[in-house]
Write a structure and sequence with these properties.
CATH topology of the largest domain: Rossmann fold
Strand order of the largest sheet: 10-11-9-12-13-8-14
Distance between the termini: 46 Å
Structural class: alpha/beta
CATH class of the largest domain: Alpha Beta
Bound molecules: adenosine-5'-diphosphate, zinc ion
Strand content: 15-25%
Shape: globular
Number of helices: 22
Number of domains: 5
Length: 749
């Protein structure tokens, strides 16, 4: 890497404000400055942060003498050449500032120059023989207990003294005694604030520990992928494997090949909630190779993040597992990116930069000549289209491991059930049956709260949020009505606020009601609810899942949080309470989402030795997603759905850019959206873009802001994005109208 001498000019992208590159003189830190360095720059009267993007170039600066950099924030570059290139591409593709991309690529703790913490750690001094342990346990039981614990740990070989004391509840004297006898060594070390290295980690580590014999299908997929890794050239593979077909096992084989060859791996999961399970499996598998698996997501403390970042950047750790933003982790010698559950909308970031984690993963793999492996039981139509056009290769796992059957899916027509019941007769019977056999049930629905809405049968009144165009949700535990869009709340009225009728009542059922009803029909059963409301407490999710895995919970009730990726062998029944909800969304992907949901949720059932069943409750039992899911007919659903998409030119046949206008005055919002269309129409037509709108969004008002949208359909994004960026700069905006451009939009509400 080229380094700057003191007098040399460098080009810097400031992280705040200016939106373009500025030239500086390298200055006193000259010998250390290189492309990717994070530096302090004088900017007007302030000192700001910036990233050096080029050394030995002043970008044609003509303003007299250059100012000097004021030094480095971190002693080594925070981005490599590939990172700088990725930022350049993302800014162009997602029509945003490069500084906005750099800001998400470099964690705050790193930007703030956070230094590692030091602490006292203990390691095993020598490995005790069984007799020695027994002798010690007799003579000094406390010391014996500590030594036995440490000797039994495979994955972790260094323990912060404070953590060990807390975990084993021993006095300092016990540890000192072991150090004196030479059983333990004590030293000062850099503290690693390693996430999930705590009491719960043990329970999460139960599965995946033993290496298994691959099935024929798994072995074929692994062979193909290992060859791709060996070839060391950019490729993308879509691993389409039914639920429970052992995709994770395939990922791990390929990862192992990469690690043995000295490469690094990024493993993406769609939700923070899924990281503990995956981390547990990977740590158990790779500990024997001496690999440390690093966790990366938005819930880490700054300290944990800085440590994770440093461990990866220095090549001390070569595997990172995390949600979306882990795609930027500074993994050295990156050879493989795994994107698990690649179809998940959660990979899309809903704030600037509005990037798609999967698509960035593909691009980053390309920059590194690496393999990108996308896995799912229900691949997105986008990825299937890329397979069809030859951009991605595809691998199939059509069978579950051990010849386990895919679960039997029953569809219950709720129009024929007695009114007002939460559970159909069939589902209730099956739940009782499972409880008697000590097997577990998951009940799944899309709504939190007790009942969905408050409704008056006399005048038709429905309780709405005062600030958003959606109904309020009733929450039983504190008897409040809440808006799930803006969080506003109100007391539950006793009579209809409109006509004073006392008949006002609740319609629909939320997680709380399902939980209460399940407890009623299964006396003595332990029923636990997992949703965004119960998850406010830290670690609550992991605790519940651990308890569920250990069989301490009979019925788990939850929202989509529990519909993904989880692997519980003792679950033999899954109930989908209201399969229609996602069908009604005003979104062209509603069918695809419903189908994915059905298949994914069903996939949680029958993963162990016993076969599983699924009960789907629906008022529209004949709708295509439900019928295709019932027949396990993925290809049928896909070709049907693709046909529709092709007809209307929707994604994946064209890209969709979503342009949102919002503001407190509906007239202004509409007016500016219309003016904007007039301005860009000729230019966009020339680029072959089809424009729709402006029209009100499906949820027209959120938090008192009115929302209008325009849709642009196009074949290639970047020329359109460039044109729009240029026009956005030229347009006469009103400061009360906010506009948001979302490339490859996923959320259309
Ligand atoms: P998927 O991610 O495809 O839904 P998993 O990778 O979670 O499936 O595998 C499902 C279960 O099957 C896991 O408990 C896993 O340990 C186990 N498993 C995977 N491959 C095999 C195999 N070849 N033989 C036996 N068990 C396996
Ligand atoms: Zn009324
Ligand atoms: Zn609201």
């Amino acid at each position: 890497m080229e380094r700057a001498a003191t007098e040399e000019p460098v080009l810097v992208v400031p992280l705040r404000g200016v939106g373009r590159e500025l030239a500086y003189r390298a200055g006193p830190a000259g010998g250390l400055v290189e492309a990717g360095s994070l530096v302090r720059i004088p900017l007007g009267r302030r000192v700001e942060l910036g990233v050096v993007v080029k050394v030995g170039d002043d970008g044609g600066y003509e303003g007299g003498e250059l100012k000097s950099l004021q030094g480095l924030v971190q002693p080594f570059p925070v981005l490599r050449e590939e990172g700088l290139e990725l930022a350049r591409w993302m800014a162009a593709y997602y029509s945003c500032g490069r500084e906005q991309v750099l800001e998400v690529m470099i964690p705050r703790a790193v930007r703030q120059g956070m230094a590692p913490k030091r602490e006292r750690v203990l390691r095993l001094g020598k490995k005790p023989e069984a007799e020695e342990l027994a002798a010690l346990e007799k003579r000094a039981p406390q010391q014996g207990r500590v030594l036995a614990f440490l000797a039994g740990q495979l994955a972790v070989d260094r323990w912060p003294r404070a953590l060990l004391r807390k975990r084993l509840e021993v006095s300092p004297a016990v540890l000192d005694g072991l150090v004196e006898k030479g059983w333990l060594r004590e030293e000062e070390d850099l503290s690693e604030r390693l996430a999930y290295d705590d009491e719960l980690a043990g329970a999460e580590r139960v599965s995946g520990e033993a290496e298994v014999r691959l099935t024929e299908e798994q072995a074929a997929a692994a062979r193909d992928l290992e060859a791709a890794v060996e070839a060391a050239a950019f490729t993308v593979r879509l691993l389409h494997g039914v639920t429970g077909s052992g995709k994770t096992e395939v990922y791990m084989r390929v990862m192992e090949r990469v690690l043995r060859g000295g490469g690094g791996v990024i493993f993406l999961v769609p939700e923070v909630a899924l990281t503990p399970q995956t981390v547990g499996r990977l740590r158990a598998r790779f500990a024997v190779l001496g690999e440390k698996v690093v966790v990366w997501h938005s819930h880490l403390s700054d300290g944990q993040r800085a440590d994770a970042w440093r461990a990866l950047a220095r090549g001390e750790s070569r595997i990172v597992v995390g949600a979306r933003s882990a795609v930027f982790a500074p993994v050295a010698n990156l050879r493989l990116i795994v994107v698990d559950e690649e179809h998940e909308p959660a990979y899309k970031q809903e704030e600037v930069p509005r990037y798609h984690g999967r698509d960035v993963a593909v691009y980053r793999a390309m920059l590194n000549g690496a393999v990108c492996l996308l896995g799912s039981a229900t691949p997105s139509l986008e990825s299937l289209h890329n397979v069809a056009t030859g951009k991605y290769g595809i691998l199939h796992l059509r069978k579950r491991v051990d010849d386990r059957q895919l679960p039997l899916l029953h569809v219950v027509d709720m129009r024929r059930e007695k009114g007002g019941r939460v559970f159909s007769q069939l589902l209730a019977d099956k739940m009782r049956d499972r409880f008697e056999r000590r097997e577990q049930t998951i009940l799944f629905l899309n709504r939190r709260g007790h009942d969905s809405s408050l409704h008056c049968p006399d005048c038709g009144y429905v309780a709405m949020c005062d600030h958003c165009d959606i109904t309020l949700t009733h929450h039983l535990h504190d008897k409040r009505l809440r808006c799930h869009m803006c969080g506003d709340e109100a007391a539950v009225p006793r009579v209809c606020p409109n006509c004073r009728s006392p008949k006002i009542h609740y319609k629909g059922s939320g997680t709380q009601k399902v939980e209460a009803q399940a407890a009623r029909i299964l006396p003595g059963a332990k029923v636990v609810r997992i949703d965004a409301d119960t998850m406010r407490r830290r670690h609550a999710f992991r605790e519940h899942l651990s308890a569920f895995r250990q069989g301490k919970i009979d019925v788990l009730v939850g929202t989509q949080m529990i519909g993904k990726g989880l692997d519980f062998p003792n679950v033999t029944l899954v109930g989908l309470m209201d399969a229609d909800l996602s069908l009604h969304l005003p979104d062209f992907r509603a069918s695809e989402r419903s189908f994915q949901l059905l298949v994914q949720v069903s996939g949680r059932s029958g993963r162990g030795d016993r076969s599983g069943e699924v009960v789907v409750q629906s008022y529209l039992p004949s709708s295509p997603p439900i019928q295709f899911a019932r027949q396990q007919d993925f290809d049928g659903f896909t070709s049907d759905e693709l046909e529709h998409r092709r007809e209307f030119g929707y994604p994946p046949y064209r890209h969709l850019l979503h342009h949102l206008f919002r503001g407190k005055s509906v007239e202004k919002v509409r007016f500016y959206a219309e003016q904007w269309r007039k301005q860009v129409e000729p230019g966009l037509k020339e680029l072959g873009v089809e424009i729709k709108g402006p029209a009100p969004c499906p949820v027209e008002r959120i938090q008192d802001f009115f929302r209008y949208q325009l849709w642009y359909f196009c074949g290639k994004v970047t020329p359109v994005g460039d044109y729009l960026s240029e026009q956005r700069r030229a347009f006469q905006w009103d400061k009360e109208v906010i506009e948001i451009l979302d490339v490859d939009a996923v959320n259309l509400l």
